[in-house]
TrEMBL record:
Name of the protein in question: ABC transporter ATP-binding protein
PANTHER family (UniProt xref): ABC TRANSPORTER ATP-BINDING PROTEIN YTRE, IMPORT ATP-BINDING PROTEIN
UniProt cross-references to SUPFAM superfamilies, sorted A to Z: P-loop containing nucleoside triphosphate hydrolases
InterPro entries recorded: AAA+_ATPase, ABC_transporter-like_ATP-bd, ABC_transporter-like_CS, ABC_transpr_LolD-like, MacB-like_ATP-bd, P-loop_NTPase
GO MF annotation: an example: transmembrane transporter activity
Entry's Gene Ontology cellular component terms: plasma membrane; transmembrane transporter complex
Keyword vocabulary terms for this entry: ATP-binding, Nucleotide-binding, Transport
Residues of the ABC transporter domain: 2-232
Superkingdom as given in the UniProt entry: Bacteria
Family that this chain belongs to: Belongs to the ABC transporter superfamily. Macrolide exporter (TC 3.A.1.122) family.
Bias kind Basic and acidic residues: ranges: 223-232
CDD domains: ABC_MJ0796_LolCDE_FtsE
Amino acid sequence: MLEMREVSKVYRTETVETHALRGFSLKVDEGEFVAVTGPSGSGKTTFLTIAGLLEDFTRGEYLLDGVNVHGMNDNQRSRLRNEKIGFVFQAFNLIPDLNVVDNVEVPLHYRHMSGGERRKRALAALERVGLSARLKHYPAELSGGQQQRVAIARALAGSPRLLLADEPTGNLDTAMARGVMELIEEIHREGATIIMVTHDPELAARAQRNVHIVDGMATGVSEEPRFHPGLR
Ligand code: ADP
Ligand code: ADP
């Protein structure tokens, strides 16, 4: 599904140069569920934003479905991103002025799709996350767990082959976190590739493989791939 070879990312400001990734290499197969762990500041989020084509990198190669994305312009990157990738963030990132169903439709506006088709997909995704009764609510009127389910519905509506999740349960209590995690596992069973950043060892243990990042490098893949009921 994706392969990074010796990817480096340097953030430069007037005075500071931060090497967020240094020669980072990782290969993730189609249909895998990978958890990414590592200390704060080690480069986990940077890896995810590069993997998700939200940012370019400084050196190295990144192949997404065999296509080298280095040097693509913003248009090419967003087209590819909207075709293949869904995101779930710790901070939900819902638009406060839009109700639930309109939030879920946002990424679909970048696809060639009629308004009717957008609505149909958004409603189906919201049904899957159990929020059909909340279509006209605004984010502020929902619990954290419900907001995260809206964010997952937004990711699902585009039927992404790759789901990138950054601490998806980080702002949720245990019960709500469990629901969100089960939803992500279900999306995996249906065939999507999942990459999830988490600092929670219990969540990481539920993935098929763990990748640990230290100082911008993947240090070791701490687990053998294990049996997963969704593996065909
Ligand atoms: P993690 O997700 O593991 O906590 P990050 O990928 O967010 O780590 O950050 C890696 C390093 O890059 C940190 O030192 C962070 O301060 C730096 N960094 C991240 N984003 C930026 C940015 N936009 N500008 C400058 N430095 C950044
Ligand atoms: P960490 O990975 O360090 O535990 P976060 O994932 O919350 O922390 O955020 C790391 C950095 O990435 C922060 O600077 C945050 O503002 C930025 N970030 C998080 N989510 C998004 C997003 N959806 N779009 C752009 N930047 C984001």
